[in-house]
């Protein structure tokens, strides 16, 4: 069956009812559904016929589609669902009128309303029946596309939605709800970013991001939260939580976060940016300043704040690991508090380099066991302990190296 055949059939049916139609307009609708949205030709024909019937106040030629649960929808399907709009987000392009999350008792899914659809605006907290939407894929997750052939009607529904909490290790791209502890807060990498860091539960850890939007607040490090309807995105093969659509509520109790990656070896390198550093004081920024107190986003900052850290390389003789060590552990390893480091950096002729050399001398070439969360190939160290040099380990490494050289 060809598009031309479908156009001819639709035109014939309408003309048989005494209604003149624009065949080029029908063909354009059919091709857009098939080529842009990946709809089967037969389904596209049914959709256009239904649209023309509504336009000319004719009885619907098709039967009312059976509703589906959100959980279990698959890419490529043409579906009818009923759900509650639990969140709206800012459209990423003028071609999109609205975007957000639709939920029912079985689960939740992202949705996109195309501007060409000229659909009625959806409101948070209301239930809708959405008929003839397309399920496609966005960032490795299913998404509902609402187009010009979709019918939206508000419905009365008193069903209570109780999102199912998902262990961190079981999260998949899409929408998820979790109960987690705020493990770490990181410096923001973008001026629109309100907060970024690491969340965790008994099964694992995951990066989170909160973008600057009205009503959004930062999470408190060390606190436990119930987070509902967060976007689970995949980036560079790793999952992360975007809390732009999420509702997050503080909870009582404690979570023992999975201990994470462990490694041991010798620190063989300290990278630039280690030692005494200056951070941007602008709320939500926290970027490291240059030596001229310049922030790449907020420019020159006079009222900066000092911090300590180590960006290093740990080598166990088989592989190397990048590590990032925060202030409290750096103070313990170097025996130097932040206040002492600041005084030394401001009084020494070498300035902040003197602090770097002191820390370097305290850790470089020494053996440590570290434990923390691994992210983007770097261990974010939460525990660090000096370990005694073992001549047996060195002998084994030398023997193995000698054997490989032969």
Please name the defining characteristics of this protein.
406 residues, alpha+beta, OB fold (Dihydrolipoamide Acetyltransferase, E2P), 5-stranded mixed barrel, 5-stranded mixed beta barrel, 7 helices, 20 strands, 39% strand
Q: Secondary structure elements and their pairing?
A:
Elements: H1 3-16, H2 23-36, H3 41-55, E1 78-89, E2 96-104, E3 107-114, E4 127-138, E5 141-146, E6 151-155, E7 174-186, E8 193-201, E9 204-211, E10 224-235, E11 238-242, E12 247-251, E13 261-270, E14 275-279, E15 294-295, E16 299-300, E17 305-315, E18 320-325, H4 327-334, H5 338-347, H6 352-363, E19 367-375, E20 378-386, H7 391-405
Parallel strand pairs: 3-5, 9-11, 18-20
Antiparallel strand pairs: 1-2, 1-4, 2-3, 4-5, 4-6, 7-8, 7-10, 8-9, 10-11, 10-12, 13-17, 13-19, 14-17, 15-16, 17-18, 19-20
Helix pairs in contact: 1-2, 1-3, 2-3, 5-6
- Topology-level CATH name of the largest domain: OB fold (Dihydrolipoamide Acetyltransferase, E2P)
Overall pLDDT, averaged?
Answer: 87
Which quaternary structure do these chains form? single chain
Trace the largest sheet across and list its strands. Answer: 1-2-3-5-4
N-to-C CA distance: 69 Å
Could you estimate the helical fraction of the residues in percent? 10-25%
Query: How large is the radius of gyration?
Result: 29 Å
Question: Could you walk me through the main structural features you see in this protein, from its secondary elements to its overall organization?
Answer:
It is built from seven helices and 20 strands. It is of the alpha+beta class. Helix 1 packs parallel to helix 3 (41-55), helix 2 (23-36) packs across helix 3 and helix 5 crosses helix 6 (352-363). The strands form four sheets. The chain has a five-stranded mixed barrel. A five-stranded mixed β-barrel has the order 7-8-9-11-10. A five-stranded mixed β-barrel has the order 13-17-18-20-19. The termini are far apart. The model has no long low-confidence stretch (mean pLDDT 87). The chain is elongated.
């Amino acid at each position: 069956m060809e598009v031309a055949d479908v156009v001819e059939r639709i035109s014939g049916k309408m003309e048989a009812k005494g209604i003149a139609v624009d065949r080029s307009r029908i063909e354009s609708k059919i091709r857009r559904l098939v080529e842009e949205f990946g709809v089967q030709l037969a389904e596209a024909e049914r959709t256009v016929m239904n649209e023309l019937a509504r336009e000319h106040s004719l009885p619907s030629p098709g039967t009312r589609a059976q509703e589906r649960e959100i959980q279990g929808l698959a890419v490529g399907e043409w579906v009818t669902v009923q759900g509650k709009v639990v969140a709206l987000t800012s459209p990423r392009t003028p071609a999109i009128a609205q975007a957000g999350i639709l939920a029912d008792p079985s689960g939740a899914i992202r949705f996109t309303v195309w501007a060409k659809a000229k659909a009625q605006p959806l409101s948070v907290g209301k239930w809708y029946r959405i008929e003839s939407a397309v399920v496609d894929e966005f960032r490795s997750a299913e998404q509902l596309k609402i187009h010009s052939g979709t019918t939206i009607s508000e419905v009365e529904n008193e069903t209570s939605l109780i999102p199912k909490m998902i262990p961190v290790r079981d999260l998949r791209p899409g929408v998820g709800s979790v109960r987690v502890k705020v493990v770490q807060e990181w410096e923001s990498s973008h001026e629109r970013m309100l907060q970024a860091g690491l969340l965790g539960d008994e099964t694992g850890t995951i990066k989170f991001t909160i973008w600057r939007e009205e009503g959004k607040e930062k999470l408190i490090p060390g606190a436990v939260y119930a987070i509902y309807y967060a976007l689970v995105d995949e980036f560079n093969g790793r999952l992360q939580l975007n809390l732009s659509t999420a509702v997050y509520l503080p909870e009582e109790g404690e979570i023992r976060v999975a201990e994470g990656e462990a490694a041991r070896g010798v620190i063989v390198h300290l990278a630039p940016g280690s030692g005494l550093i200056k951070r941007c004081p602008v709320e939500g920024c926290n970027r490291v300043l240059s030596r001229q107190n310049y922030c790449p986003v907020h420019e020159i900052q006079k009222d900066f704040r000092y911090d300590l850290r180590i960006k290093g390389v740990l080598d166990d003789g088989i592989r190397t690991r990048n590590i990032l060590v925060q202030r409290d552990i750096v103070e313990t390893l170097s025996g130097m508090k932040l206040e002492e480091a600041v005084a030394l950096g401001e009084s020494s002729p070498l300035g902040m380099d003197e602090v770097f050399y002191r820390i370097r001398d305290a850790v470089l070439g020494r053996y440590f066991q570290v434990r923390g969360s691994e992210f983007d190939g770097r261990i974010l160290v939460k525990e660090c302990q000096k370990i005694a040099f073992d001549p047996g380990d060195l002998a084994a490494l030398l023997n193995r190296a000698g054997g490989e050289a032969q």
